[in-house]
From TrEMBL:
Belongs to the ABC transporter superfamily. The keyword Nucleotide-binding applies. Pfam families: ABC_tran. GO terms for biological process: transmembrane transport. The keyword Cell cycle does not apply. One of its GO terms (molecular function) is ATP hydrolysis activity. Residues 3-199 form the ABC transporter domain. The lineage of its organism: Bacteria, Bacillati, Bacillota, Bacilli, Bacillales. This is ATP-binding cassette domain-containing protein. InterPro entries: AAA+_ATPase (IPR003593), ABC_transp_ATP-bind (IPR050319), ABC_transporter-like_ATP-bd (IPR003439), P-loop_NTPase (IPR027417). Keywords: ATP-binding, Nucleotide-binding, Transport.
Length: 199
């Protein structure tokens, strides 16, 4: 199975020029594709389009040759650089996690998510603790592709490598394909099976 973006054109409202102009990209099951490019080039925007979080583009996003299903737990999961923007600030984190269904307790331990974190609101955790929960939410057997948008930039090197280790192991186990958006050439060199440059 592959996730593909075919001939995508997109601009934000009010802008005269295309931000994305005839962009095509595909990610196959089990691949770790690094998406690399200068700041402001539209990498995060493309990630959001692939994950179905932005509409109003021209072109197609297909999963296994069909439009990505909507209205259910999405098989294409996006993890953002800013975890605080990805969760409901008024919900305790246990509720946020439960929304996606039952969670895997082994995965919780591997990611270093303490059970008492789940009884707290997002502003009662550090950025790194919150990001671990967002990673945990996105790693489910139903996930087919993961868009990881600078997911570890706010973490120290040890935590960064611990989290990527868990993500890559999980992806391998379930044949998940990953698009890793990063500025970090060292990280891309260590984790990616292929790199795509947006210039
Ligand atoms: N919601 C929005 N409305 C209007 N313009 C936006 C919006 N989000 C992003 N942009 C603009 O679109 C351009 C591309 O942003 P995007 O975040 O996709 O780039 P990027 O390649 O991921 O950048 P970086 O590497 O700095 O994260 C930027 O010029 C940004 O200011």
């Amino acid at each position: 199975m592959k996730l593909e973006a075919n001939h995508i054109y997109f601009k934000y409202g009010g802008s005269a020029e295309w931000l994305l102009e005839d962009i095509s990209l595909d990610i196959r099951a089990g691949e770790v594709v690094g998406l690399i490019g200068t700041s402001g080039r539209g990498k995060s925007t493309l990630g959001k389009i692939l994950a179905g979080q932005i509409g109003g583009y021209k072109g197609d996003v297909l999963l296994g040759g069909k439009p990505v299903p909507k209205g259910i737990y999405s098989p294409v999961q996006l993890i953002y650089q800013h975890p605080e923007l990805a969760v409901n600030p008024r919900w305790k984190l246990g509720k946020t996690l439960a929304e996606a269904g039952e969670y895997d307790d082994g995965l919780r331990r591997e990611l270093g998510v303490k059970t008492h974190f789940l009884d707290r609101y997002p502003n009662e955790l550090s950025g790194g603790e919150l990001q671990r929960i967002c990673v945990m939410r996105a790693l489910r057997p139903e996930t087919r592709f993961l868009i990881a948008d600078e997911i570890s930039t706010m973490l120290d090197v040890i935590t960064q490598s611990q989290i990527w280790h868990v993500v890559l192991d999980y992806a391998k186990q379930y044949g998940i394909g990953i698009l890793a958006i990063t500025h970090n050439e060292h990280l891309a060199g260590a984790i990616c099976t292929r790199k795509v440059f947006m210039q």
